[in-house]
Specification:
Length: about 750
């Protein structure tokens, strides 16, 4: 009732102002000072009265109660949570797991895990042109990691010269603090420079010696673990990960080189190549020796298993661990305890417990597990989210959530952070090696039911494409099958996507791909091409399956509408340039950024920069300065029902701006970039009714919103609203639950 009253009062005030303006244009009345005075006085009283009433309605509107939760990371708050990726790991005899990776958004490139907890991190691995790497080892005194130090232009401090980088081994004590040594390099003297060309690819210790794979030099370098002085080196082609057997000899992964496949080779400590080798593998990514002296190999090829070799004489595979085929065994993509995928680390402790890390493919996220010697899963730590957001399956009322590669099952009766179960991994690069998710970096998710069938739509940080996936549980289980793709023009007569992927793409302009034969491959006869304005504002897929695109052009027709032309026999939605409609831009906008259309009510919501509130500079990633609602859109109405000014940069400092918007039933949600605050507006009136901030469940903190679809909202059948917000900093998606 309050919202309807407010809307009517706002309309009345607008009409009154229009009549006053008309009256003021009459030449006789303009000459009458007395009339102008009385008119101004009367209008002021009426408008003030309406303003008071409007203010009363605004402030009198009850705020929405909400709680904060999250998905995608085992830990929801604090500095110690599961890192974005684990690219290497070492397991100590007591079960402490040391890890390393090139990048973690919150600076935890190298973590320390034990007993299902994150107990520490190796410090100072992030920023100042520093990053981690893909090798780690430890002894009873120190932890050693591969890392890179770039130049900083600081000639008075110990940094690389401009344009160069150090590829180093950095030493830490067991608590995670850098451990300097004589002649150490870097600001704290804890870095050992091994190369200025290529990164360190393997590390191992035995007694007082540290073995380092210098990939670019084709050498293994040996250092004293205490003094860090080089003792000797020897030649090994393409050396990678290293482990030490009970006889103190080295087993080294030799990376594939062109047509030469990878294999595991055997060397003495002094550099003599021994005759044993393992060549019956496809993609070895990690190795370790277990408590029984057997060699463990992470086989990241189609088998997706840990292979176990007896190496006393000629290496013989004696067993394996994990389901053959990994995550694709049984129901493809279904998450199970013994189904592995994208292996990057293996190891055991002194008790024979097994530790395995899976990263998925194209750095999908961390999945670190501990198993008993008999194979029972004892604990699992997940960090599945990086530059990603979630959306709800409308058919299951928000019980099924999807991110770009994962499927979650929700139980909202459980406590915050315990509501989600990791149900499925939707990427299968072995069956669909041309899956766009393997070749691009999507981050915005739309889940739609089109003619009752589920589809996944993905776009990226720059709105440069829209990827389409279908599902067929009978043939592919949980896996999302590549079905189609839109790309934008890049403004020049060259391929939009450079390189060898996708094959057969048009040489110029933009294109739509549809998987006409259903094999998930980009083939020559599957493209529709066109040319258009190159700068995109945003994408939208409505409930009917129509695709909408906003361009940042000022030519008056910035909206592209691609009506769904049906679903083909293979299950792919059909779109074409011949059926595309160009639609006019409402005159209030001069730079359109976001678009959401709802065919059930014929309502359009647009955001962008306006004539009244123009952009300050060219901040390409933000949603603009205003959101406007248009009723009866298909009938050509371009007069907004309301327009609201959202937080935007008006100073050039970019401290305040809005990243994304999302509309669900009765509310419009918008989230700011740096503060990650969610503004909630009444969809009928445009009046702000609430402001959401991360609650204590997630440490009352969030990172910046980095993507144009960093917020997605969904209304459940019980009236509750789910609002999903990207939280890239500490690797999760924040979930706000608002009472209906």
């Amino acid at each position: 009732m309050k919202h309807r009253l407010l809307a009517e009062l706002v309309k009345l005030r607008q009409k009154l102002n229009q009549h006053i303006k008309k009256l003021s244009k009459i030449r006789y009345l303009q000459k009458s000072k007395t009339f102008n005075f009385l008119l101004s006085l009367t209008a002021g009283v009426i408008v003030t009265t309406l303003g008071i009433t409007t203010d009363w309605a605004t402030t009198g509107t009850s705020t929405l109660t909400y709680k904060t939760s999250w998905i995608g990371n085992t830990f929801g708050s604090g500095n110690l949570r599961v890192q974005n990726n684990i690219e290497a790991m070492y397991v100590a005899p007591d079960g402490t797991v040391y890890t390393n990776s090139h990048w973690d958004e919150a600076g935890m490139e190298a973590g320390i895990y034990k007993d299902a907890k994150v107990i520490g991190a190796l410090g100072d691995t992030h920023g100042w042109s520093r990053g981690g790497g893909k090798a780690v080892t430890a002894n009873s005194k120190y932890v050693y990691i591969a890392m890179t130090q770039g130049s900083r232009g600081k000639t008075n401090e110990d940094y690389p010269s401009e344009g160069t980088a150090w590829h180093c081994v950095r030493r830490y004590d067991l608590s995670g603090k850098p451990a300097p040594f004589p002649n150490g390099r870097g600001w704290d003297k804890s870095m050992l420079i091994t190369s200025t060309k290529t990164e360190v690819t393997g590390l191992a210790t035995v007694e007082s010696e540290l073995y380092v794979s210098d990939f670019g030099a084709n050498r293994i370098r040996v250092y004293d673990t205490d003094t860090m002085k080089e003792l000797r080196s020897f030649t090994v082609p393409n050396p990678g990960a290293i482990t030490i057997d009970p006889e103190k000899n080295l087993w080294i992964i030799q990376s594939k080189n062109g047509s030469n496949p990878a294999k595991i080779i055997h060397y003495s400590q002094t550099g003599k190549q021994l005759p044993q080798e393992i060549a019956d593998i496809v993609e070895p990514t990690a190795i370790a020796i277990n408590h029984q002296g057997k060699l463990l190999v992470a086989e990241n090829g189609p088998r997706q298993q840990m292979l176990i070799y007896d190496i006393k004489d000629k290496p013989v595979q004696v067993s394996s661990f994990g389901c053959k085929g990994g995550i694709y065994a049984g129901v493809p993509g279904e998450v199970r305890d013994l189904k592995l995928y994208g292996l990057t680390g293996v190891g055991t402790d002194a008790s024979g417990n097994i530790y395995i890390n899976s990263n998925g493919f194209n750095k999908s996220g961390t999945d670190l597990r501990k198993f008993s010697p008999s194979g029972k899963q004892l604990w699992r730590s997940l960090g599945l989210i990086f530059v990603d957001n979630a959306d709800a399956d409308p058919k299951t009322d928000g019980v099924d959530l999807f991110t770009k590669q994962e499927h979650y099952l929700m139980n909202y009766s459980k406590p915050a952070g315990k509501q989600w179960t990791y149900k499925g991994y939707t990427l299968n690069g072995f069956k669909y090696p041309q899956d766009p998710r393997l070749h691009t970096s999507p981050d915005g998710t739309f889940v739609r039911r089109i003619q009752g069938k589920p589809f996944l739509f993905l776009t990226d940080m720059y709105s440069s494409f829209l990827q389409i996936y279908r599902f067929n549980p009978a043939t592919d289980g949980q896996v999302a099958i590549p079905a189609g793709m839109f790309v934008g023009s890049n403004g020049a007569d060259k391929k939009f996507l450079t390189g060898n992927w996708p094959p057969h793409q048009p040489e110029q302009g933009e294109w739509i791909w549809r998987d006409r034969n259903g094999n998930g491959k980009f083939e020559k006869n599957e493209y529709d091409r066109s040319k258009d304005y190159p700068h995109l504002g945003g994408w939208w897929v409505d409930s009917k399956g129509d695709v909408w695109k906003a361009l940042r052009t000022q030519d008056g027709t910035a909206i592209r509408h691609y009506p769904l032309q049906g679903i083909d026999p293979k299950g792919n939605p059909i779109y074409s340039y011949s059926s595309m409609q160009k639609q006019a831009t409402p005159s209030i906008f001069n730079d359109l950024r976001r678009i959401e259309y709802f065919p059930q009510t014929d309502t359009m919501y647009l955001s962008g920069f306006t004539v009244d509130h123009p952009a300050f500079g060219d901040d390409t990633g933000v949603a603009g300065s205003e959101i406007a609602r248009f009723d009866n859109w298909s009938q050509g109405n371009h007069t907004p029902r309301w327009r609201i000014v959202i937080p935007y940069d008006s100073t050039g400092k970019r401290e305040v701006s809005t990243a994304a918007m999302s509309v669900a039933k009765d509310y419009v949600f918008a989230v700011t970039v740096k503060t990650a605050e969610v503004y909630v507006y009444n969809a009928t009136t445009g009046v702000q009714v609430q402001q959401l901030k991360p609650g204590p469940e997630v440490g009352s903190e969030s990172g910046w919103i980095d993507i144009p679809y960093g917020i997605r909202a969904f209304r459940r059948s019980n009236g509750e609203y789910l609002v999903f917000v990207e939280e890239n900093w500490k690797g999760k998606v924040i979930v706000y639950r608002l009472a209906g």
